[in-house]
Specification:
By secondary structure, this protein is mainly alpha-helical. The chain is about 80% helix and about 0% strand. The protein is built from two helices and no strands. Helix 1 packs antiparallel against helix 2. It is elongated and about 50 Å long.
């Protein structure tokens, strides 16, 4: 069975320093996008409290963008592992 998010198994076939840089960049990107999702939800909540239509629209739009980016980013290891198991 393929472990979907085994970050230690994600490699591109290059040298070890590039693999560790890839792993660190992946983890950093996941954390940054998760923080942006949290911030957009806080903006949306504050906008709902003060009944600001601009803040609500901005919070929802930024949440949708960040959630989409997070989904795409988390799909990358699945795609890499799937292509490795096919060949």
């Amino acid at each position: 069975m393929i472990e979907l998010y085994d970050v230690n198994d994600i490699n591109i076939g290059a040298n070890l320093s590039f693999d560790s840089m890839f792993q660190n960049a992946f983890i950093f990107a996941v954390i940054i996008i998760a923080i942006s999702i949290f911030i957009s939800l806080v903006i949306w909540f504050i906008g709902a409290r003060i009944r600001s239509e601009k803040a609500i629209k901005f919070g929802i739009k930024s949440f949708i963008i960040a959630a989409t980016m997070q989904t795409i980013l988390l799909a990358i290891p699945i795609i890499i592992n799937f292509t490795k198991s096919k060949f």
